[in-house]
Amino acid sequence: MSITQLDKYRYLIPKSFREGMNVEGLIYASEEIIGAIERDETLKQVANVATLPGLVGRSLAMPDAHQGYGFAIGGVAAADLEKGVVSAGGVGFDINCGVRLLASDYSLEEVKPKIDSLLNQMFSSIPCGTGKSGILEISFEQLDKVMLDGAHWAVENGYGTSEDLQHIEETGKMSGADPDEVSKRAKQRGRDQLGTLGSGNHFIEIQYITEIFDEEAAKAFGLKLNQIVMMIHSGSRGLGHQICTDYLEVMQEAMPKYKIKVVDRQLACVPVKSKEGQSYLKAMASAANFAFANRQMMSHWARKAFEHVIGTGSLYLVYDVAHNIAKEEEHSVNGRSIKVLVHRKGATRAFPKHHKEIPHDYFETGQPVLIPGSMGTCSYVLVGTERAMLETFGSICHGAGRVMSRHAAKKDISADQLIHQLKEKGIHIRGASKSGLTEEKPEAYKDVRVVVDIVHNAGIARKVAKMVPIGVMKG
Amino acid sequence: MKSQFKILEHPSDLGIEAHGSSMQDVFRNAAYGLISVVTGDSRIETRRELKVEIRALDRENLMVRWLTEILYLYDAEKFLTADVKFEALTDTLLKARLLGESYDGSKHELKIDVKAVTYHQLSVDEHDGYWTARVFVDV
Q1: Closest approach of chain B CAs to the CA of A310, in angstroms?
Q2: How many whole angstroms separate alpha carbon B122 and alpha carbon B134?
Q3: Which among A189, A266, A435 has the least Cβ separation from residue B76?
Q4: pLDDT band per the 50, 70, 90 thresholds, residue B12
Q5: CA–CA distance from A283 to each of A9, A233, A276, A280, A470 (Å)?
C-alpha cells in the first residue's frame, strides 16, 4: 500500500498501509525530499506508531524525519490522557535534548577577528567530547536538587540570571519531577556529566544573522542583521540515556498486565495514568530538568569566554526548546478540546501567539522555534502558528535530519580536509575528536533550507531569521 | 581469544553483528563488539574482576540487558571488559565473571559515546549450531 500526496507538502499514510493502525499517518515533505524519507524505514515506523492504543489525531513525521528506533526521529504522536499510552521510546534516549539561542550585542566585526581565540577559550572552559566528565563534583543530594529545579538550580548557583528563566520552555523547571523514580544507576551515570556538551551531533556555534524574513517577530526576539548569536545543542547525557533504558524494561514487563502488544519492542508503552507510566513521566521530567540546567551552565561559561576574549557585552537568552520530550497539553481534536500527552521525538514545540505557555514579552508574537542546520551550513529561527495547533499539536521539525550513516560520512573526506573546506567558507572549528567531525559533515544531512521551507510553506511555522556560523565547537 | 564481530551501518547509528559456535560465544563476542565501538582497538588488560547476574524475559531481552550492563559498567564505573567467563547462560539468566580493567586515559582511546542498546532489528539466532546476533546501539 502506498502513500497519498494530499497537497504540495503533505503525504498521507492511510490506515490500510499496515494492519492495526488506529490512526492515519501524515508526513510533511516535498517532492524533493519524500524520496529520502521513503528510502529508509521512516514510513513503516510512522505507521507502527499509529498502532499504539489511544492515539488521537495522526501519527506525524516532520520533513527532517529519518529512521530511528521504534519511533522515527522527527515524529510527533499524541495520546489521549485517559485511554492512551506513554512510551519511553517515543521520547528517546536523550531526554530533553534541545537547543537554545543567545543573542548578543557584539557585532560581526568585533567577533570575527577574534574567533579563534574565542573558540579556544570556550573549548578550554566547557567540557566536551566522548566520555568527558564535568568540572563539578556534585553529591547525589545536589543531583536530586538539579533534577527537581533544573535551570532554577543553575541560576541559584550562579550560572546565569533569573531573566534567563522566562525564556526557557517550562521556565527551565518541568513540574512533576521526582528523583525517587530515577534509578541509582541513572544517577551514577549522569552525576559527573552535568555541565558537559557531550559528543555526536551536539555542538555550540557562534553564528551571525544573514537574513531577516519577518521584521516584526525578529524585533520581538531581539534579532537583527549581522548580529552575533550563539546556539547550544545538548541534552541530559548519561542520566537521560539510562532513564530511557530502565523504563523500556519496566514498560516491557508491565505490558501484559495492561494487555498491550506492540509491533516493535522499542515501542514498549503503558497507559499514561498507570503506576509505571506516571513513574516514567516523573523520571523523564527529572532528566528534562537536568538538561535545562546543563544548557544553562554551558551558557554561563560561554558568556564568560566572550567577556574574556571580546570584552564586556551581553548574551541574552532568546529561547531554549526541548526536542525529545513528552508533555501533557490541551489541544483541539475534531473541534473538541482535550488533554493529551504529546510525544515529540526529534520535534520542536511551536506554539503561536496568545498561547498561555508563551513568555509575556513574546505573547503577541509567538514562541521562537530554533532549527539548527548541519555543521557549516545555516540555522533558522521560526515562530509558531495557529495552523500547527490545528494539525501538529503545535510542533514542527528539529533540524536537518541525517541521511548518511556515520561510517559512510567518514569515507570520502578526512577531518583535515573538512576543517580546511569550512575554513575557506569562513567557518572555524574546534572538535574534541577528528573522526567525530567527519561524521557530522554537512552532506551527512538533508539541506536544512529545504526542510525549513517545507514547514514554512505548509504554514505550520513562519521563518523569522537565518544564521550562518563563523565558529563551531563540536563534542 | 579472537573476537568475531563486525560493525553494521544504520542510517542514524550503528550496529554489532556477533558470531559464535555457541550461545556463550555469541554473547561474549557481542560484548567485545560493544567495547570496540567504545574504545576502538585499545588494549585492555585483565586486572580486575566483576561478577554480574542478569535475568530477562527471553533471549533477545537478555542480550539487550547484557550489553546494557557492559555499557553501564563502562559509562558509570569506568570498567572496560576484556574477557568473559560464563557461569550460567540460558535464555532468561546470565551469570558471568567479567575480567578487565578501569579506564585509563593514558592507554585507552574513547572513540564513541554509546547512549544505549536498542531493540531495533534485534536478533539472536542459531542455525545448525552457528549463532548470530544483531544489535543496534544509539550513539
Answers
A1: 33
A2: 5
A3: A189
A4: low
A5: 37, 22, 11, 5, 38
Instruction: Mark out the alpha helices in A106-165 (DSSP H runs).
Output: 108-111, 115-125, 140-149, 151-156, 162-165
How are beta strands A55-66 and A25-28 bridged, if at all? parallel
Dump pLDDT digits (tens) for A126-155.
Answer: 988 877 777 888 999 999 999 999 999 999
Sequence length of chain B is 139
What mean pLDDT do residues A342-350 have?
A: 98
The DSSP output letter for A223 is -
Task: Count the neighbouring beta carbons within 10 Å of the beta carbon of residue B89.
Answer: 20
Tell me the pLDDT tens digit for each residue of B63-120: 999 999 999 999 888 999 999 999 999 999 999 999 999 998 889 888 888 999 999 9
The residue from A66, A202, A398, A456 that is catalytic is A398
Measure Cα distances from A59 to A174, A337, A406 in Å: 25, 18, 28
Closest alpha carbon within chain A to B8: A407
Do B111 and A241 make contact, defined as CB atoms within 8 angstroms?
no
Scanning B17-46 for CB atoms below 8 A from A yields: none
Q: What is the DSSP string of A40-65?
A: TTHHHHHHHHTTSTTEEEEEEEEEEE
How far is it, in rounded angstroms, from Cα A338 to Cα A472?
A: 43
ipTM higher than the 0.90 cut: yes
- Looking at the complex, report in whole angstroms how far the Cα of residue B129 sits from the nearest Cα belonging to chain A: 27
Best residue of B103, B112, B114, B123 to probe chain A, by most A CBs closer than 10 Å: B112
Torsion angles phi and psi, residue A103, rounded to 5 = -105, 140
Asked if A435's CB is within 8 angstroms of B11's CB, the reply is: no
Q: Please count the other Cβ atoms lying within 10 Å of the Cβ belonging to residue A465.
A: 28
Beta strand pairing call for A203-212 and A227-234: antiparallel
Alpha-carbon gap: B7 to the closest alpha carbon of chain A (Å):
10
Q: What are the distances in angstroms from CA B52 to CA A330, B62, B95, B116?
A: 46, 13, 6, 19
Residue A240 in 3-state DSSP?
helix
How far, in Å, CA of A98 to CA of A371, rounded? 10
Residue pair A152/A214 in contact (Cβ under 8 Å)? The answer is no
- Express the helix, strand and coil content of chain A in percent, nearest 5 each: 40, 25, 35
Residue type, A370: L
Contact B118 A242 (CB under 8 A): no
Residues in chain A closer than 8 A to B8 (CB atoms): none
Are the C-beta atoms of A274 and A262 separated by less than 8 Å? Answer: no
Whether A354 is catalytic is no
Cell of A172: 527551565
Does B61 contact A at CB distance below 8 Å?
yes
Handedness of CA A291, A295, A298, A300 (dihedral sign): negative
